[in-house]
């Protein structure tokens, strides 16, 4: 039997996503039912790039299921520093663990690893490309807040060029009816053309705008903020010029609809002022919490335990 991997949100059908989100809701409401679901199973977290939420929420997710975890949290702590390929690493890890989550600075590295893997591999972020488990987290958050996806208008703001969470989220949401996107970025950080092509092919309405103002925010159901991805810039000067392009503070938020939720994959830098955190529309910490439930549901699904 070939293991099942997760490289892109499209690796799951809409029906499978629904089932997985139902499972995540059940795990959230009845954690005791699942406390031994992964007894004797091991998760490997292979992180070649920094992470707080993704790695720790994967580990918490597995521990909540009764499983154990092993792995490394930087390339320097692994044999990558000696020149080992991800293919060799995963072949070896396949002997030590039952499932692996991999984050890598190079686009496609988890896919390359999955081709040689004997266990399910989850893409936990590959360069500026995709971040499917953040998308599962985002979908669960949106469904919890709004109850559905149909007919929503989603604003995505910030670094839409390098922000992999944005690419995966647009791809995933594009499968729902009457969805619309408002893409808010500086001209230099627009959504890559391959994502725009997807929207055009599917006939999904979208607008690309530069300003985050009252006019832009009116009609948004969700405003998904992102940080400028410093580590993907070729020169420091460009980063410094862009980094504070958007700052959502209390004054700006006063112009936003009363029912517009604010999300952010985190970490935040300056793009959302801390004074916004107490506003009931700010949902980014709840979003981080959703990450644990959906990752538990994903682990159970890929291990074939549901
Ligand atoms: C995101 C990532 O790694 O792409 N973080 C996360 O996983 N929650 C967003 C970011 O780093 O800006």
In short:
The chain is of the alpha/beta class. About 35% of the residues lie in helices and about 15% in strands. The chain has 11 helices and 9 strands.
How would you describe this structure to a colleague?
With 306 residues, the protein is an alpha/beta fold. It has 11 helices and 9 strands. The chain has a 5-stranded parallel β-sheet with strand order 7-6-5-8-9, with helices on one face. Strands 2-1-3-4 form a 4-stranded parallel β-sheet, with helices on both faces. The structure holds N-carbamoyl-L-aspartate. N-carbamoyl-L-aspartate binds at residues 53-54, 125, 131, 134, 164-165, 226-227, 265-267. N-carbamoyl-L-aspartate is lined by residues 53-54, 125, 131, 134, 164-165, 226-227, 265-267.
Secondary structure layout plus pairing:
Elements: H1 14-29, E1 42-47, H2 53-64, E2 68-72, H3 86-93, E3 99-104, H4 109-116, E4 121-126, H5 132-146, E5 153-157, H6 164-173, E6 180-184, H7 193-202, E7 206-209, H8 214-217, E8 222-225, H9 236-242, H10 250-253, E9 261-263, H11 284-302
Parallel strand pairs: 1-2, 1-3, 3-4, 5-6, 5-8, 6-7, 8-9
